[in-house]
Amino acid sequence: MKNVAILIDAENICIDIIDGALSDLKQFGSVRIKRIYGDFSKTQLQKWKDIAFKYNFETIHHFSCTKNSSDILLSIDAVDILYSHQDIDTFCLFSSDSDFSSLVQRLRKSQKQVIGIGHIPPNESYRHLFEKFLLIPHSTKIPQNTVSKVKEKESKTKNAELEDVLTAYKKSKKDNEGYAKQSNFASFLAEKTRKKYGKFSNFLKNCQYIDLIPDSKKGEHKIKPKKAFFAH
């Protein structure tokens, strides 16, 4: 049976889904590490203390003195677990926040199974990084400010990716039909966008801003931004 570590970003998860989510996670193995991260001095996180007591979670408190301070602490702990608890086979990350993309990639690179859990659908590039992403139904209304923050972050992420795609395309050499060769385009694509997809092949398959046609060079494609996103 596999050994599992559960890491919860309390500031990005609706507490209402926890009972159902933990039940679903039994299929992945025996839970060895259970931690919840957040600034528990905040009124909206007080109920997490009851969850911690009920399921014997370790609470990792961190004052929100800087932006994403709890996210950073969770990521550091996850990498520490990777090296200090080599018996852990599976990491279950409770968050729809794509800021954890680099962490998920690092864990997968080390041949670990990584399961995502959330109540708000993540963007496609983030979801694709996980072996599985479980979208858990919730029975209570999600606070509007939580939804707004996630949507705002998703919008900024998408705009940045589109800008990176257009910049790489403009710098690339084009053929008579306006297509750029895959290798040339790849050399100009920003590192942060490449990392978000893990592999460039994943970028080609999942990026919503590009059109592809087969190149004469076997295994490669020609690339052009979709007309809706690019004006010549």
From TrEMBL:
Residues 3-121 form the NYN domain. One of its GO terms (molecular function) is RNA nuclease activity. It comes from the Bacteria. PANTHER family: HTH OST-TYPE DOMAIN-CONTAINING PROTEIN, SLR1870 PROTEIN. This is NYN domain-containing protein.
